[in-house]
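This protein record is not my work; I was only asked to verify it. The record follows directly below this note.
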Amino acid sequence: MALFSFVADDLTGASDVLSQAHRYGLEAVLVMGDAPLPADADVVGIAGPARSLAGAAFDTRVRADLARLAATPSEVLLYKVCSTFDSSPTTGSIGRGIELLHDRFPDHGPISVAPAQPGFGRYTAFSDHYATHAGQVHRLDRHPVMSSHPSTPMHEADLRQVLATQLNDGVPVGSIHLPAYDTGAFPETWAQQRAGTGMSAFVVDAVSDAHLDALAAALRQDAQVSSPAIVVGSGGIMAALARTVTSTETLSRPLPSASGPVLAVSASASSVTAAQLQDAVDHGWIDVPVDPALLQGPDPDQHAVLAEQVSSALGAGHHVVVHTTRGSNDPRYAATGPLDAAYVGELLGRIAAAMATAGLTRDIAVLGGDTSSHALTAMGVRELRVTDQFVTAAPICRADDDAAVAGCRLVLKGGQVGPTDLLRRFAGDTTTSPTTESVNHRKATPCEQ
């Protein structure tokens, strides 16, 4: 039996969970679609596009994922959400996810909610949530990016209030605040919140790894009585759970450079991603914007034009970025607004799969959390495992042998994740000055193990 299991509401977030487990020496596997759950892992997870879904589609997806994990015993079940908690009552509702957890595990009692990830600049204090941007910590409702998120803008920082708008029962949401750690009252306060009646969930403060370690210990203690213990949180709590098992980080090997041209596909409207795309283009990557006509719906002729642009650039040895928008100021974004995540994810995934199958690249970056699940599904991916640590919340992974991208290095990056030079780091080139010349003239060999 796996020690820990998780269901993630998007793929890039799921890759962070894999990364945190791998970081502490645990074998972690993520499955997609109807792929069988492996029996050889310490951590087993399922990822889907729930963060981009609403209504019946959301319920159907989350129920199915929870049912599969319920049949695979584990000590702790993590319902993985973004560390910036972006959700709304109608899109990717975390509150609705909590209600579905109660439907599946009716005897569990109030569920802890802990999205903090201090190592990633995400903190919860007195139930208000904070996130770092450009070296500054911002309250969630004043965050330069999250307050104006294109799909789920966050206008409230108190996570109790956020959840209250998403839960149908109207009951209050509990909390454990920072002083409980300093006074030694955390175990008692935890027991009180877990025994609370008429309450669906409670928010747990954390501004340090030590706080998350206390939560992880409490979860594993609960699991000794009745499993699984359930927590709603980010990669931060998976790291804490892993520390209860191994306590020390494993040594990372030197990161290999790309073997040839790198392909990055992006549907993220984040300003963070826009800066990363700009940095790549400034350093010689070929810029391939998706035509607005193709963004509106399938167009075989336009798709063929896009594929030819990408294959020609890769075949000439150039790194390439393909994108549906470069930030919310892109004229295409102004004309279309947020796009259908399933459609654009499949569109970008098909391009990446075709390039890998043709042997034009074996190093692929997928940018954008809402669309990543759809993109990898289009690539035929059914299983992911971490091969290398990279940047926080974005490890390098490999797919199963039957995927179109088998043998390729894959990095999956959420919109708000990573340094400006992330793509050049992935390519193994962070030393060149801005130029219009290609940074790599070698053609990739076919993707193979």
Summary: The CA atoms of residues 238 and 409 lie 23 Å apart.
